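Quick start: read one record
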Amino acid sequence: MIDQRLFFPATERNSRPIRELLQNHLPAYGTVLEIASGSGQHAVMFQKHFPNIIWQASDPNPLHRRSINAWISYERLGDVMPAPLDLDVDIEPWPFLSKGEQTISAIVCINLIHVCSWESAKALFKGAAKTLDSSCPLFLYGPFMRKGYHTSKSNEIFDKSLRLSNSLWGVRGIEELKKISKEEGFLKQIIYTMPSNNFSIIYYKN
């Protein structure tokens, strides 16, 4: 059988600092929805580290969902971890909402905001607002600008390369995201500086 697992080096590198931050903000129990899970490396690692939580991965890319399933099988997590959802933030209603199968205690979104359109970023906050109760966190991770400026030369170069690849992509500003998050009711924002010129941003409704 062909191994269908994808492996992204950046995902491997940032797993530990993200996990260490998440353990201070995730609920002790419940279901965590990960948006744009990519290869699935994060998903299985977090499921193993947070055994009392159900980690619900998702991705609109069928190759990524295939990789996530392969990682679940490889790590022998099939009894505790559900198959990934085909979830595109732009398409409403989100699939688990339409089926009414899950109550989501937190949403985690790693390295998506800079590789999606601004409209998709708005859709993420809109969908999260419909999904989460007031005490449930929305967690974002990735490179972000602060007060209209890049925080490193490497991020500036990365931003230019993103926009050359797709004119709708680009490193977003934390202040811009705060504005659209408030429009959807996320009034509390906590910012953490992370390794490699990245940030984690955690939003709550109160």
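The beta strands are 30-35, 53-56, 104-110, 138-142, 144-145, 172-173, 188-194, 198-204.
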